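User: Please predict the structure of the protein below. I'd like the answer in structure-token form so I can feed it into my own downstream comparison script.

Assistant: Understood. Taking the following sequence of 202 residues as input:
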Amino acid sequence: MKLEDCANVIQGTFINRIQTSNLNEESKIVYLLTLKEFNETLGLSYRISQDKNTQIYVRKDKLSKELFTDSNSLVMHTLSQKVAFLHKQYSGLLLTNNFIKIEFTKQVDLNFMEWYLNEHPAIQRQIAFFSEGSVISSLKLSHIKDIKLSLPPYEQQKQMGKIKILQKKKEKLLKEKVYLEQQMVHQKLVNITSQSTQEEEK
């Protein structure tokens, strides 16, 4: 079975085709999905320190529901070739052309599908094959639709999805632990330095 056999695969929009001025009476403010939200969902670091403007004005007649994120679909970033099951707070963001929405038409567990598309060796081999020969490693819409799937039964997907959720929680807690330990060591060193300086000044 190919991905297109069990899902609608939708390319995000080119901003320059729909963007308009705030002076246009037919315009509406929308917010864009960015790599910041995408990477945060996957637990990845976001290296760009200054956020870009994520708010634009678009013509109302150019907007369709399928171009926005929701909590019932997956989103793929075509450059990183990663897939994310976005948090609910990131619903309603407009997808730009670097993102692909994967809206399943058959019953699947989205937590499992996020893991399956990101990490299963059979999927990774296909993605590597589709990306060969490209100067910029980016997947085309047609390639994504052609990804071949071999899915376990739905109940098994749910069990595997729960395991993935627990793993994510564990990874998040470990990162928080490392961060707090670093902060504690940092503060101790600052305190020792301050104390040494004060003693020298006496």
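That's the full token string. The first strand starts at residue 7 and ends at 11.
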